[in-house]
Write a structure and sequence with these properties.
Elements lengths: L2 E7 L4 E7 L3 E5 L6 E2 L10 E6 L2 E6 L7 E2 L2 E2 L3 E5 L3 E4 L2 E7 L7 E2 L22 H5 L3 E7 L4 E5 L2 E4 L7 H14 L10 E5 L5 E5 L9 E5 L8 H7 L4 H12 L4 E5 L5 H8 L9 E5 L11 E5 L13 H8 L6 E4 L6 H9 L7 E5 L3 H13 L7 H11 L2 E7 L5 E10 L8 E13 L5 E7 L7 H6 L14
Parallel strand pairs: 2-12, 3-4, 19-23, 19-24, 20-21, 20-22, 22-23
Antiparallel strand pairs: 1-2, 1-11, 3-5, 5-6, 6-9, 7-8, 10-11, 13-14, 13-18, 14-15, 16-17, 17-18, 24-25, 25-26, 26-27
Helix pairs in contact: 7-8, 8-9
Length: 477
């Protein structure tokens, strides 16, 4: 859906209109902006405007002279509606619907626009622009101005690209941060930002980065993977999917675990398609990456504190709000800290069928990591009580692994059952990846095999009518 931007120049007594089709555009003095305002009081990249449905968000990109709405200066951003006007210097700007009638002259012919999520990054990252366009590259890693790596099909390779100097790379990161409404400096040497397609930019500059400026751009796949894609890739089997679907229908709480780059987020995205359409799902993330393939989804993102340490909203804060919003399922993008305790409490008090991811090396290590993160909550509980909470709350662990050939496969699907008499965790593996070797191209051979262990909830599922007669699950005795 397109829209129009009306611009009225009070000083020059003229007005014009520009037709746009993309959901995000920039306003500033530089010609690279979609709306160019020729005035010395307008910053090169002054404002960022996002149009989502009938909501318009205007962000001040650290401009020198600011943006005004209703005669008040916008501190950081403001939410507007179609027809509302805001002021930059002597320019009155109004976003209106596509069918709005106006006598203002159109600035230029409207060209068919293909939205480029990296549009405002490209000018600063010239040495790697073709990597941004290459769909086969999933991550770009910059380890200083002259050491650039890429990940292609799960394998990391060094490139011959380089920036002109370390100073040029630092300037690029600062400009990217500014374009995103953030700030990077010696006092604030970290950038963790999300582009509009969900791709993530993480950067650390000196003095915290000791041997240069470090940047990682994790690209977001434009094509949402499906369950069939995972089967075709050899990442999982149909029998394993049937089991996970049964666990989802039975509202078992599922933890997706694995090492860095093992495909946890991708796997959680795909598994979310197994959630019944009628369920209300609330997603909470530190940096929004999940794109759940469901209609009734409410997405929330944590908010860092401002430069004065104010306004922070943590995952724990959002989780507390979520519990008052009648969720059928809660999905937390990644467990990293004290929010583990709150999620366990939710899982143990009627919010079954929830999901999350966590970094770990094995299913058993997943439970140990949950212990450690629960302890970060500041709640003083004996180890026995924590383990009882975890073993009661977490039902299924789906563990994924990246192999040396770059492939990502589900390595274990395990069920957490009651604690052992010595209070240690008790797991039974339902599926285990059995490796059989490598082919002549170095590809890892093998497959996910059913162990023969019977899930504890299988009989209940059969009585509930969730197991189809004659199916793989029906054959388990």
């Amino acid at each position: 859906m397109g829209f129009k931007v009306l611009i009225k120049d009070l000083s020059g007594n003229r007005e014009w209109v520009k037709q746009l089709n993309q959901p995000i555009f920039f306003i500033g003095k530089a010609s690279t902006n979609e709306i160019t305002l020729n005035s010395p009081k307008v910053s090169s990249r002054h404002a960022r405007v996002m149009v989502r449905g009938d909501k318009i968000t205007v962000e001040d990109l650290k401009s020198t002279n600011g943006i005004f709405f209703n005669n008040e200066k916008i501190e950081r951003s403001a939410d507007l509606s179609f027809g509302d006007s805001f002021k930059i210097d002597e320019f009155i700007i109004t976003v209106v619907s596509e069918d709005f009638e106006t006598d203002a002259k159109e600035e230029e012919e409207d060209l068919e626009f293909k939205f480029d999520p990296f549009a405002y990054v490209r000018p600063f990252l010239a040495p790697i622009n073709d990597f941004l366009e290459d769909a086969s590259i999933s991550e770009i890693m910059i380890n200083g101005h002259d050491k650039i790596y890429i990940e292609r099909k799960g394998k990391i390779e060094k490139t011959d690209r380089k920036f002109a100097s370390e100073k040029a790379l630092v300037a690029a990161i600062k400009n990217i941060a500014r374009a995103l409404g953030k700030e990077v400096s010696e006092a604030n040497p970290r950038l963790d930002a999300r582009l509009d397609d969900g791709s993530r930019v993480a950067a650390v500059i000196p003095p915290c980065a000791l041997t240069g400026t470090y940047v990682s751009i994790r690209k977001f796949s434009k094509k949402a993977l499906t369950l069939q894609d995972l089967i075709n890739f050899g990442a999982i089997t149909q029998e394993a999917i049937d089991f996970i679907e049964l666990a989802v229908l039975m509202k078992q709480n599922i933890m997706v675990s694995g090492g860095t780059g093992s495909g946890k987020t991708t796997l959680l995205n795909v598994l979310s398609s197994l959630i019944p359409d009628k369920d209300r799902i609330i997603v909470i993330e530190d940096t929004a990456e999940l794109q759940l393939q469901k209609e009734h989804v409410l997405r929330m993102e944590a908010k860092p504190a401002d430069k004065k340490g104010r306004g922070e909203v943590t995952i724990r804060d959002l989780l507390h709000s979520t519990l008052r919003m009648r969720p059928d399922r809660i999905v937390i993008g990644e467990i990293r800290g004290g929010e583990a305790f709150d999620l366990l409490q939710a899982m143990n008090t009627g919010h079954g069928g929830s999901m999350s991811t966590i970094h770990s090396n094995s299913p058993f290590d997943t439970l140990s990591r949950l212990e450690n993160t629960t302890l970060q909550s500041g709640i003083q509980l004996p180890l026995k009580a924590i383990r009882e909470q975890i073993s009661s709350a977490i039902n299924i662990i789906v563990h994924t692994k990246r192999f040396e050939d770059g492939s990502r496969k589900v390595n274990y699907i395990s069920e957490v059952i009651d604690l052992k008499p010595d209070m240690s965790y008790n797991l039974q593996h339902i599926f285990v990846f059995e490796r059989t070797g490598k082919d002549e191209n170095g590809k890892v051979l093998g497959g996910l095999k059913f162990t023969g262990n019977k899930p504890t909830f299988l009989e209940e599922a059969k009585k509930a009518g969730f197991v189809r007669k004659g199916s793989f699950l029906d054959s388990i005795k």
